[in-house]
Amino acid sequence: EAVLQEKQEVVSELRRLSRDLPVHVVVRLCTDDESVMDYYNELDEEPELDIQVTDGMTGEAVEVWEAGNKWLVYSPLVHRIRESGTFIRLFDLLEERPLTAMEVALFCQMLVRHDPDDPPLPTEPRDFCLAVRERLPSLPLVYDPLGRQMS
């Protein structure tokens, strides 16, 4: 009962923070204690709370993979953006469900455009895929925590 009361108090405070301040709360777990992880993951599931719970890069990469986003190398940069907090909801969705084709296209626009003067990627699926394939070799390699290699 005390734990339930404590959880309700935490939810109430987080709800107040989200309502009263322009914040995006990220809880970065640095533990392997299952009870702590379960507690915060339950908070993450609360629909009225706008919080993101993250753990280590490899654990997050596994979650992104298991959510169906196998097309993405979950790089240290992607992890750092999520860990630091972002209002770009696509980063949160990566571990929740497979991104739609339109969401993948938007995500790729963010990742493969070198500078703001680069033209946007084409909107036709075939041309889009060709343009991404053309740009990939010019991008720096990134560390893949699942493959434990640069790719």
Q: Main attributes?
A:
2 domains; 151 residues; elongated; 7 helices; mainly alpha
Rg from Cα? 18 Å
Shape: elongated
Q: Biggest β-sheet: count, sense, barrel?
A: 2 strands, parallel
Number of helices: 7
Q: Structural class of the helices, strands and pairings?
A: mainly alpha
- In sequence order, what are the helices and strands, one letter per element? HEHEHHHHHEE
The separation of the N and C termini measures 49 Å
Mean pLDDT: 91
Name the strands of the widest sheet in spatial order. 1-2
- For the record, the count of structural domains works out to 2
Helix residue percentage: 40-55%
Give the helices and strands, then pairings:
Layout: H1 2-20, E1 25-28, H2 34-45, E2 51-54, H3 57-66, H4 76-84, H5 89-93, H6 101-112, H7 125-135, E3 143-144, E4 149-150
Parallel strand pairs: 1-2
Antiparallel strand pairs: 3-4
Written description of the protein model:
The structure is a single chain. This protein is mainly alpha-helical and 151 residues long. It has two domains: 1-55, no CATH class; 57-145, no CATH class. Helices cover 52% and strands 8% of the residues. It has helices at residues 2-20, 34-45, 57-66, 76-84, 89-93, 101-112, 125-135; strands at 25-28, 51-54, 143-144, 149-150. The strands form two sheets. It has a two-stranded parallel sheet with strand order 1-2. The longest helix is centred in the first third of the chain and has 19 residues, at 2-20.
